[in-house]
């Protein structure tokens, strides 16, 4: 972590200032770091606002990425950058959220789970991987500058695409970037997959809001993740589609542990009944293991928050739905892995499943 007085080496992603520069952290507040302006041949180095900084801290030997948000010449001269991403632990957990059909509250849950983890002090990223229906930025009232499509097609890093959302969640908008992932050329594909390795330097948790259904892109993200959360509702067609998704995962990799979440329930008893029903059918017909992982109560606060385009974990923290998501976030933090620890990184696993 950067502290006041640290000597920093930075390289700016800028067409004019292409060299490596030395500076010092003059002061730090809750959100920003103020840097001395370096000079070269008597001239100040003043990149344009919005420039990405690649930073090396000489004291900690850590690498960081940040963005220049302001430069000032007088009365004081400084460069003002965003505080870089810091993670709490030493390992990144990729958690995919999936559903058998749309309309079960998957994206709303993904957003509020990310908020719950971020509010506990964890560096949390939310990746919108919903092909063709990406709407995380809309539901969080964010204006995206770049999306995954820009990472694929242009010289944009994944961290440049990040927008800071409510609750301190780092959002990576999807756009149409995942729509034809299986059909893009190998160079662009490798560039995208390798970009995920950047997240492993800065994130405690990466919540992946996948598309609904059983498309190959969806299944591949599930197979590469550390944890898979499947969300359904008590409606019969939703349960049927959730089981179809679980069956597809079982056919691809029966060693994966499914964490089952029932949304929009009227009582804990209803959630337990639905979960048990799905688990019992799966036990008779599939090899895969399913774990009851919680439920979310039917709550008008959810629809109110959606209309406001704000997470209910922020607007109505004491509502029943918020308490349910809080319980699930505590499970994620405190419950040890039920599957063997992955020996390969997420990007390596993703590369493997897409190349099968």
Helix and strand string, N-terminal first?
EEEEEEEEEHEHHEEHEHEHEHEHHHH
Largest sheet: 8 strands, mixed
How many domains? The number is 2
Q: End-to-end distance, in Å?
A: 40 Å
Strand arrangement in the largest pleated sheet: 11-12-10-13-9-14-15-16
What does this structure look like?
The model has no long low-confidence stretch (mean pLDDT about 85). The protein has 2 domains: about 5-80, Roll (Pnp Oxidase, Chain A), CATH 2.30.110.10; about 95-355, 3-Layer(aba) Sandwich (Rossmann fold), CATH 3.40.50. The protein has 11 helices and 16 strands. A hairpin with a 2-residue loop joins strand 4 and strand 5 (about 45). Helix 1 (about 105-120) crosses helix 10 (about 320-335), helix 4 runs antiparallel to helix 11 (about 345-355) and helix 5 packs antiparallel against helix 11. It has helices at about 105-120, 135-140, 150-155, 185-200, 215-225, 235-250, 270-285, 300-310, 310-315, 320-335, 345-355, and strands spanning about 5-10, 20-30, 30-35, 40, 45, 50-55, 65-70, 80, 95-100, 125-130, 165, 170, 205-210, 225-230, 255-265, 290-295. Strands 11-12-10-13-9-14-15-16 form an 8-stranded mixed sheet, with helices on both faces. Strands 1-2-3-8-7-6 form a 6-stranded antiparallel beta barrel. A two-stranded antiparallel ribbon has the order 4-5. The two termini are about 40 Å apart. It has about 350 residues and is α/β, with parallel strands linked by helices.
């Amino acid at each position: 972590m950067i502290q006041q007085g640290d000597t920093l080496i930075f390289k700016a992603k800028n067409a004019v200032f292409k060299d490596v520069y030395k500076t010092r952290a003059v002061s730090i507040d809750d959100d920003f770091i103020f840097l001395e302006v370096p000079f070269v041949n008597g001239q100040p180095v003043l990149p344009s606002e919005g420039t990405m900084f690649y930073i090396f801290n000489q004291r900690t030997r850590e690498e960081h990425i940040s963005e220049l948000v302001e430069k000032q010449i007088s009365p004081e001269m400084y460069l003002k950058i965003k505080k870089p991403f810091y993670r709490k632990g030493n390992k990144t957990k990729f958690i995919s959220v999936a559903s058998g059909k749309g309309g079960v509250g998957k994206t709303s849950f993904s957003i509020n789970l990310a908020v719950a983890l971020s509010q506990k002090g964890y560096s949390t990223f939310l990746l919108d991987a919903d092909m063709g229906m990406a709407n995380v930025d809309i539901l969080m009232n964010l204006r995206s500058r770049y999306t995954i499509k820009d990472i694929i097609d242009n010289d944009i890093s994944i961290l440049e695409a990040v927008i800071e959302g409510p609750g301190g969640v780092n959002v990576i908008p999807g756009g149409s970037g995942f729509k034809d992932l299986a059909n893009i050329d190998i160079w662009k594909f490798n560039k995208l997959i390798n970009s995920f390795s950047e997240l492993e330097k800065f994130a405690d948790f990466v919540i992946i809001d996948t598309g609904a259904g059983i498309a190959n892109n969806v299944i591949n993200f599930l197979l590469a993740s550390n944890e898979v959360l499947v969300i359904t509702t008590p409606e019969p067609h939703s349960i049927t589609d959730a089981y179809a998704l679980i069956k597809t995962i079982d056919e691809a990799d029966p060693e994966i542990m499914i964490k089952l979440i029932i949304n929009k329930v009227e009582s804990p008893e209803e959630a337990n009944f639905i979960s048990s029903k799905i688990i019992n059918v799966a036990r008779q017909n599939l090899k895969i293991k399913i774990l009851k992982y919680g439920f979310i109560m039917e709550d008008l606060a959810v629809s109110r928050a959606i209309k406001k385009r704000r997470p209910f974990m922020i607007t109505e923290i004491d509502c029943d739905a918020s308490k349910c998501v809080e319980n699930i976030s505590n499970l994620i933090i405190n419950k040890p892995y039920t599957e063997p620890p992955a020996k390969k990184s997420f990007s390596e696993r993703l590369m493997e499943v897409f190349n099968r």
